[in-house]
Amino acid sequence: MISATVRTLEIEMIPAHEIEEAYERRLKGDVKYRFVMDIATMTG
Which domain of life does the UniProt lineage start with (predicted)? Predict the structure, then answer.
């Protein structure tokens, strides 16, 4: 028998230039959802 677990993840999408602010928020414990960085906003 195969069983599957379905999870719904809530995320906070952030632009690449806000990654340092997101990290600081993580250190402070001010994070409700997982951060996902939008790589389309990266400049090279």
Answer: Bacteria
SS (H, E, C) the chain: CCCCCCCCCCEEEEEHHHHHHHHHHHHHCCCCCEEEEEHHHCCC
In a domain, 24, yes or no: yes
pTM: 0.68
Overall number of domains in the chain: 1
Domain that holds residue 22: 11-41
Residue 6 lies in a domain: no
